[in-house]
Design brief:
The chain is mainly alpha-helical. Helix content is 73%, strand content 0%. Helix 3 runs antiparallel to helix 4. It is elongated, with a radius of gyration of 17 Å.
Length: 115
């Protein structure tokens, strides 16, 4: 799980760069694929891990970019102590699900396989 958190930090760092944010997602998928290959010595499992984790990370980068965009009527928050109401952004729901799956999904799948 610690490795997942470190890799997730890599994705957040790459998405804030704004140059090529999907490189971090591909790198996460590659690292997880190599880890699965070293553990199981099966290329098809490693390729599947690359596709699943890379896809989840790419979705995470996509939704983070959508959250960062400002809507037409939306104003940035001021430094004053008054609270401004902002409209609900639906992108937070899949974003939080993707973060949960990237961090805890592998452990939950392993526990489900043991039953």
């Amino acid at each position: 799980m610690i490795i997942n958190l470190v890799l997730l930090g890599l994705i957040f760092g790459a998405s804030k760069k704004k140059m090529k944010p999907y490189v971090g997602a591909a790198l996460l998928g590659a690292v997880k694929g190599v880890m699965y290959f070293l553990a199981l010595q099966r290329v098809e499992v490693a390729l599947g891990a690359f596709l699943v984790f890379g896809g989840l990370a790419a979705g995470l980068v996509y939704f983070m970019a959508r959250v960062d965009r400002k809507e037409e009527g939306e104003e940035p928050y001021s430094n004053y102590s008054s609270k401004k109401k902002s409209p609900f952004k639906w992108e937070y729901v899949p974003l939080s699900c993707l973060v949960f799956l990237l961090v805890f999904g592998e452990g939950i799948a392993n526990m489900a396989a043991l039953r």
